[in-house]
Amino acid sequence: MARKTPVDKLNDAIAKILTEYEGDIRGNIDRVARQIGQKGVTALKQSTKQAFPTSKNYQPGWRAEYKTERLSTSVTIYNASRPGLAHLLENGHLMRNGQRWTGRPHIKPVEDELVETFTREVLSKL
Question: Are 36 and 114 in contact (CB under 8 A)?
């Protein structure tokens, strides 16, 4: 049943409703971001295992870091055990003997899938 609000209190009532809605949305986005971060770590460990089966230090080093600020939530997935190696293995590099390592894209496909999943999940929570 609808509540009647006097005209002079209308601004306060609208502000209260919007604040509650913002809190609900922020909570949903935080939950989705954490879920996507964990899925990303798992997917990167799996794709790294497939792309580089002999690597013992690189594959288990994937971690997710979450930051929640006033107006944003971010998830950073990185390799803690070999931080500079991810870029070189993904994009290629020049080796010591002068030959070129062409690289094996194992991060970009996972990133594209995670961005699509995050967008879909957030829109469904709205």
Answer: yes
Kindly state the greatest CA–CA separation across the chain: 80
* Residue for token pair 């002999």: 54
Q: DSSP secondary structure string, 11-71? A: HHHHHHHHHHHHHHHHHHHHHHHHHHHHHHHHHHHHHHHHH-TT-SSSGGGEEEEEEE-SS
Q: Give the separation between CA 88 and CA 71, rounded to whole angstroms.
A: 33
| pTM exceeds 0.85, yes or no | no
The pLDDT tens digits along the chain (126 residues) read 566 767 777 888 888 888 888 888 888 899 999 999 999 999 999 999 998 888 888 999 999 999 988 888 899 999 999 988 999 999 998 989 999 988 889 999 999 999 999 999 999 988
**Token reading at 125:** 């929570």
